[in-house]
Amino acid sequence: MYRKYEQRFDSGVKKYVWSKIARELTEKLGSQYNIQQCDTKWKVLKNQYKSVKKHNDQSGNSKKNWKFFDVMNDILFKRPEIQSPATCSSRTGMNVLGEITNAVEGAVIANNPVEPLAEPNNTSTPSTSRYQSSFMRKRKAAENAIERRHREKMTRQDRYLDLLERLTSAVERSTPAANTNNSENNSDSE
Fold it and tell me: What is the DSSP annotation of 41-82?
């Protein structure tokens, strides 16, 4: 039934198409069907098809069978959400696959994979190098801040040790005088 209304799905409002399909199913099967049920059932079938196709496309997996796969494959295989018309990655550039329709002339240009539009290059693009230099500046600033805090901490510790040493010296100088005074006081009292 989807094939009967396929053109209308692409050009019209889907709600009205599902309404017609629900009405037709109700008449043919005798059970009551509504728009939501038809739409949900289609989405479930489509997701199941995608799942089976993805599983079967991966190497090393055993083939998964589904009784509606062939019918759904006939309907959905050429759709862009199933068979990507183009892929793009930073490593390989852009690859355009399959038929390309010239929008101006409305003619099919090719039925074979098309050469990549952009050759991948190993040099950085200006925006990438700009981000990279910005990142490097921030990283250098962070390293400088860490280094500065370390120097400040070491200066404080050196100052603390110096003060502790002076305090110890002062205590040692005052201690012999206190000890001699104590010993004089102790000898007087005897």
Answer: HHHHHHHHHHHHHHHHHSTTPPPP--TTHHHHHHHHTTSTTT
The strand pairing partners of 95, in sequence order, are 87
Identity of the amino acid at 76:
L
Q: What is the pLDDT of residues 71-93, one digit of tens each?
A: 777 776 666 555 566 667 677 66
Of 71-75, 114-118, 126-130, the one with minimum mean pLDDT is 114-118
Backbone phi, psi, residue 117, to 5° = -70, -35
Final residue of a domain: which of 26, 58, 79? 79
Alpha carbons 47 and 61: distance in angstroms, whole number: 19
Let me know whether 9 and 73 are in one domain.
Answer: yes
Contact 95, 88 (CB under 8 A): yes
Domain boundary among 71, 105, 122: 122
The radius of gyration computed from the CA coordinates of the chain, to the nearest angstrom, equals: 41
Tell me how far apart the alpha carbons of residues 3 and 14 are, in angstroms, rounded to a whole number. 14
- The one-letter code for the residue type at 116 is P
Measured between alpha carbons, how far apart are the two ends of the chain, in Å? 125
